[in-house]
Design a protein that fits this description.
189 residues; mainly alpha
Length: 189
């Protein structure tokens, strides 16, 4: 027992010696640094040279375009017909006709782009295929990640229909094809 007490005392002595620490020396007092104020800046704009404008010589007058006329050979010429000209009605009796309405220029499309009705039909076909495929999938049996993909496909179909209403056929078709691809992938697994 005495040994135990002796060991305890030695342990306490060692612990108290280990906890003792030397004190740090106080830093010597040093004078504070005096930082001078920054010098004032004077910014002067650099002079820019004035641009030299060179006069442009007068352009020559525009000549009317000359197009060479193809000459027909004597063998290819048709005989000149001399028919009496019908007499024109007097200028006062000539009916005034309204100018013919100008037709709207045709809409530019790439060769791969179908016309509006055909493009609309094609996009609606893809949308219906995607809807049919999604309808054949049991949503409850899908994992959380697959349910998210299912919902994404539904949103893509809705966006495709919105773009179809604004006649953005290419964008609507791309969205519908993405939705159809997702639906087919979900059905395959």
């Amino acid at each position: 027992m005495q040994r135990l007490i002796l060991l305890a005392l030695l342990g306490l002595a060692a612990a108290s010696a280990a906890c003792a620490s030397a004190q740090a020396k106080a830093p010597a007092d040093r004078p504070t640094l005096e930082v001078p104020a920054p010098p004032t800046r004077t910014i002067e704009p650099t002079p820019r040279p004035e641009p030299v404008v060179e006069p442009v010589p007068d352009l020559p007058p525009a000549a009317p375009p000359t197009t060479p006329r193809p000459r027909a050979s004597a063998a290819n010429r048709e005989p000149v017909r001399t028919e009496p000209k019908p007499e024109a009605p007097p200028p006062e009796a000539a009916p005034t006709s309204a100018p013919a309405p100008v037709a709207a220029p045709p809409q530019l499309r790439t060769p791969a782009t179908a016309d509006g009705v055909e493009a609309d039909r094609q996009v609606r076909t893809v949308i219906e295929n995607a809807r049919r495929t999604l309808g054949s999938i049991d949503y409850r049996q899908l994992s959380k990640a697959r349910q998210k993909e299912y919902n994404d496909a539904g949103r893509l179909i809705a966006q495709a229909e919105d773009h179809l209403k604004t006649s953005s056929f290419e964008l609507a078709r791309n969205l519908a094809e993405k939705a159809d691809g997702i639906a087919k992938e979900l059905k395959g697994r």
